[in-house]
Amino acid sequence: MPNKSHSNPSGRQSKSAVVSGDNQKTRSPEACARLVALGVPKEYAESFKTFPLTPHEATNRWCKKLKTPHGWKVFYFGALNDWQSALMRYRAEVPPRRDEKCSKALKP
Question: Is residue 75 part of a domain?
Fold first, then answer.
């Protein structure tokens, strides 16, 4: 019997991400419009690869959920009114993810 304690209580799936034909995650039109309203250019807002941050409107900061050795944790990178410095701080502090196949090939 599957464990239902971690399931979505509403039974709906999240609409914030859509997988495109080339297997890349892109944002939904609603999420993209929300980022554009916050000042992020549309070219950046469409893809998680070009703009990985999410607005955390309760604290008025840009955030990203990252995996740590102790589990997933939300990290904050700057004020909502300054998306460029938040993105620069994210790129400076978070190492780029390696492809799973490459990291397995590098292990002895």
Answer: yes
Give the number of domains in the chain: 2
Question: Which whole number is the average pLDDT over 93-105?
Answer: 61
User: Structure pTM?
Assistant: 0.68
Domain containing 43: what range?
A: 18-51
CA distances from 96 to 20, 29, 48 (A): 22, 26, 13
For the chain, the DSSP string reads ----TTS-TT-PPP-SEEE-TTS-EEE-HHHHHHHHHTT--HHHHTBTTT---EEETTTTEEEEEEEETTEEEEEEEEETT-HHHHHHHHHHHSPPPPPHHHHHHH--
Q: Which of 31, 51, 71 finishes a domain?
A: 51
Quick check: 3 pLDDT over 90?
no
For residues 26 and 71, state if they share a domain: no
